[in-house]
């Protein structure tokens, strides 16, 4: 059932068997390891901790940062907060959507990029702001945003 | 003794034990605080905020279903501020409740509707936010889940967790929140056992039984409480009728019915029921009058020379008593057998008398539980619930089952005997009790039994001696019960032996049986052989289906349906079903429990039919009314109640003295499949009709 989960992860989680209080911790470890939480992973966590499947799925779907679908290798988070909105985030979003061919919440077919919008990144002085993986990019134009995403992808190609 | 707290609620003084919640304190003096998420018997979640009350000296309103009383507290349950807040909450609920009370099944019994009326709430104040993708019927069998009516109170989630499998929860977040199963799978694929506990607690029309739809409004229902007849655990069941027809059953005070009790009533109103007597005319059975049928039956049985009776376990004590009396008085026969899966009288005598019989209450209070047999949890969900409740309260559970199971998963000790070796395992545990000096030497009959038990060899049950010793040690002390779905004489007599050795005499043995009244055999004087009888009367039992076709010159069958046995009968008489009969059953601890005629029937009462047959035979029964029969039944049961002896704990040999009977197999719950097919069909019909309208 949970064949897709690496043996190391299952061994790491084994001491938590029967401890429902570790639900979120185990879900995070699953996601960090395989990138998202599949139905099979939910079943593994449910069996391991003795938590009902319904509770596991309820928790997974409650938290925005648990993903039930495979994620892109890179995450682009575009701020749609007030300051960024005024600074032109709407235009940036349209440009990114057109360039990547996906809507916020979606992942490109080649699993390269997941596009998300967030309510505020707390960097309003830099508005409009976009975060690519761990890196902040501020005072953007639409063209710059697209170029940054492209650079990230080509950097990956060079590294690969 | 808990400390007493005195407070004032709406100016009235009230004294309650420390720890009581404000809502319950108010209820104790007749003040009902509106609530939607709180439900008596379920853990409080405090999430709907409808039960907010004002506490003098506190700036914020308090949640009365979770806040405990304090000395000197002054609570206002209906101040202007409280009512304003309550209206606001109801207005918000209406902004996502896509309901129309004029067509809702729940109208009249809906809490939201009632509070909306009581508080004169403006339903349209915030408009309606109910996106089209929220489903109005998830298409499950037996019950409809209309999420457009869900108000997210969470009662069903808690009821499912407390009483069943815990398959429901809140999914998603914020405005997208819905209550459903993991991955929104259909109930049938989510481990749902269809007990319907969620329906019983739903305050609105989100969860309703499919069978009741468009059959009548809540205020038209007539309700009668009786006992569920699908097994011998005796859950109370309320049958709701509308326009003279059954539209729904629901749990009584106990608050729980399993799928059979909740949804398994459609056989009562089945078109296949026998409604008139039939008599044989050549190769066929033809409908006739009662007078003609009873005359034929009386003549045929009287003329047969020797007569035997067979009676099944799904009838009241009164029917069994009147049946035995009919055979004895009118046809001079003592040859009456209790059959159809019923445990015969001979086996019952090994249980240490009727007082040894336990009920679910005894199981829930037990500290040590020995649960024996296959499919115990699946076959008897009420027993599963009782065992789980006891385990949650700290009881130690020993499971004897060759397979993994839901109960094995929560057991302190799981013993896996090899196939058919349950009885040998129990003998081995009994011997371990004695060898380890863990038995109760003071208990009645123990001293005499000990030498023989010490002599016993340990039978091979395929379980390690260490595990057996551990089981003996675990089970030895404390309030203990044995619950068994394995109904062989061997298993039950060994179970009784273990209870005897540990000095447990009352309310200690719960054999699980899939019929309403399996102990009614005590009303009959002796076990029947039926051998050689030329005339046979079979009531509520189908020996042909059980593989024992009666060999008689003249056969009378009385049953609900035209059974295999009835097909070969000379006279067939209709029978009232258990739910249609007034009377008593033998319940836990050998107590008589009264049952009501909850479902309607046009047939004469069963005892009356038997009395009429006696009249037709010219030798009337000594009963003028059901009361007379009840008095006679009670007298017989009182006479045998305490007089049955405990069995000895000797080797395997003694079981052969008992009437052997076969291991009980769970019957296929055919009505579940039937209901699903029928309801599935009508649901498809509805969606077709909708499409036509759309086109």
Structure description:
The complex is a heterodimer of chains A (160) and B (695). Chain A is an alpha+beta fold and 160 residues long. Chain A has two domains: 7-62, no CATH class; 74-159, Glutaredoxin (3-Layer(aba) Sandwich). Chain A is 47% helix and 11% strand. A four-stranded mixed sheet of chain A has the order 2-1-3-4, with helices on one face. In chain A, strand 3 (130-132) and strand 4 form a beta hairpin. Chain A starts with 6 loop residues before the first helix and ends with a helix. The relative contact order of chain A is 0.13. Chain B is globular and about 85 Å long. In chain B, helix 7 packs across helix 19. In chain B, the strands form seven sheets. A seven-stranded mixed sheet of chain B has the order 14-13-24-23-22-15-16. Chain B has a five-stranded mixed sheet with strand order 2-1-5-3-4, with helices on both faces. In chain B, strands 19-18-17-20-21 form a five-stranded parallel sheet, with helices on both faces.
């Amino acid at each position: 059932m949970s064949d897709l989960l690496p043996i190391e992860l299952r061994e790491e989680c084994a001491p938590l068997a029967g401890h429902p209080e570790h639900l979120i911790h185990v879900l995070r470890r699953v996601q960090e390891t395989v990138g998202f939480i599949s139905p099979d992973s939910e079943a593994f966590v449910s069996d391991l901790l003795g938590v009902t499947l319904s509770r596991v799925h309820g928790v997974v779907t409650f938290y925005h940062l648990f993903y039930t679908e495979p994620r892109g290798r890179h995450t682009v988070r575009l701020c749609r907060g007030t300051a960024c909105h005024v600074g032109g985030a709407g235009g940036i979003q349209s440009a990114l959507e057109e360039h990547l061919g996906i809507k916020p919440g979606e992942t490109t077919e080649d699993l390269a990029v997941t596009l998300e919008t967030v309510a505020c990144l707390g960097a309003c002085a830099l508005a409009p702001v976009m975060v690519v993986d761990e890196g902040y990019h501020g005072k953007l134009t639409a063209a710059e945003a697209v170029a940054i995403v492209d650079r990230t992808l080509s950097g990956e190609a060079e590294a690969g | 003794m808990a400390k007493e707290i005195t407070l004032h609620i709406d100016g009235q003084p009230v004294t309650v034990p420390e720890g009581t919640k404000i809502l319950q304190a108010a209820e104790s003096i007749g003040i009902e605080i509106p609530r939607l998420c709180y439900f008596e018997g379920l853990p409080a979640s405090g999430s709907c905020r409808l039960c907010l009350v004002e506490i003098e000296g506190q700036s914020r309103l308090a949640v009365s279903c979770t806040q405990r009383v304090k000395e000197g507290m002054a609570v206002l349950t209906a101040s202007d501020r409280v009512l304003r807040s309550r209206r606001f909450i109801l207005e918000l609920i209406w902004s996502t409740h896509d309901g129309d009370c004029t067509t809702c099944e729940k109208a009249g019994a809906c809490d939201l509707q009632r509070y909306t009326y009581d508080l004169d709430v403006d339903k349209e104040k915030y408009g309606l936010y109910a996106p089209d993708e929220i489903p109005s019927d998830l298409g499950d069998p037996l019950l409809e889940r209309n999420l457009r009516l869900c108000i997210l109170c969470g009662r069903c989630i808690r009821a499912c967790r407390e009483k069943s499998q815990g398959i429901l929860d809140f999914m998603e977040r914020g405005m997208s929140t819905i209550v459903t199963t993991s991955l929104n799978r259909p109930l049938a694929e989510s481990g749902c056992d269809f007990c319907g506990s969620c329906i019983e607690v739903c305050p609105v029309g989100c969860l309703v039984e499919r069978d009741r739809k468009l059959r009548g409004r809540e205020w038209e229902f007539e309700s009668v409480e009786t006992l569920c007849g699908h097994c011998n655990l005796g859950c109370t069941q309320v049958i709701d009728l509308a326009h003279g027809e059954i539209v729904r059953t629901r749990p009584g005070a106990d608050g729980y019915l399993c799928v059979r009790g909740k949804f398994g009533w459609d056989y009562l109103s089945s078109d296949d029921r026998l409604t008139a007597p039939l008599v044989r005319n050549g190769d066929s059975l033809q409908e006739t009058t009662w007078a003609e049928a009873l005359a034929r039956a009386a003549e045929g049985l009287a003329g047969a020379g020797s007569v035997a009776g067979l009676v099944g376990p799904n009838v009241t004590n009164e029917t069994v008593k009147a049946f035995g009396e009919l055979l004895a008085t009118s046809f001079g026969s003592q040859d009456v057998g209790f059959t159809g899966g019923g445990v015969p009288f001979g086996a019952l005598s090994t249980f240490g008398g009727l007082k040894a019989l336990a009920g679910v209450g005894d199981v829930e209070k037990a500290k040590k539980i020995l649960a024996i047999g296959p499919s115990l949890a699946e076959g008897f969900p009420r027993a599963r619930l009782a065992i789980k409740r006891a385990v949650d309260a700290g009881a130690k559970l020993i499971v004897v089952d060759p397979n993994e199971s839901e109960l094995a998963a929560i057991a302190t000790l799981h013993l896996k005997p090899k196939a058919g070796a349950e009885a040998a395992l129990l003998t081995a545990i009994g011997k371990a009790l004695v060898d380890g000096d863990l038995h109760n030497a003071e208990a009645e009959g123990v001293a005499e039994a000990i030498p023989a038990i010490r002599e016993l060899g340990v039978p091979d049950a395929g379980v390690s001696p260490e595990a057996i010793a551990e089981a003996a040690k675990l089970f030895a002390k404390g309030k203990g019960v044995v619950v068994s779905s394995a109904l062989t004489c061997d298993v039950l007599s060994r179970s009784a032996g273990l209870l005897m050795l540990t000095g447990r005499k009352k309310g200690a043995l719960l054999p699980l049986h899939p019929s309403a009244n399996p102990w009614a055999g005590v009303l009959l004087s002796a076990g029947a052989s039926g051998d050689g009888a030329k005339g046979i009367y079979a009531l509520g039992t189908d020996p042909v289906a059980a593989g024992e076709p009666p060999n008689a010159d003249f056969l009378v069958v009385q049953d609900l349906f035209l059974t295999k046995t009835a097909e070969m009968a000379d006279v067939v008489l209709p029978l009232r079903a258990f739910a249609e009969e007034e009377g008593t059953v033998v319940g836990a601890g050998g107590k008589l429990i009264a049952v009501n005629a909850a479902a309607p029937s046009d047939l004469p009462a069963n005892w009356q039919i038997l009395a009429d047959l006696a009249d037709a035979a010219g030798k009337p029964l000594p009963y003028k009314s059901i009361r007379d029969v009840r008095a006679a039944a009670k007298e017989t049961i009182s006479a045998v109640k305490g007089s049955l002896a405990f069995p000895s704990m000797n080797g395997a040999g003694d079981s052969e003295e008992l009437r052997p009977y076969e291991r009980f197999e769970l019957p296929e719950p055919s009505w579940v499949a039937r209901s699903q097919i029928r309801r599935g069909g009508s649901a498809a019909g509805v969606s077709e009709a909708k499409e036509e309208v759309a086109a």
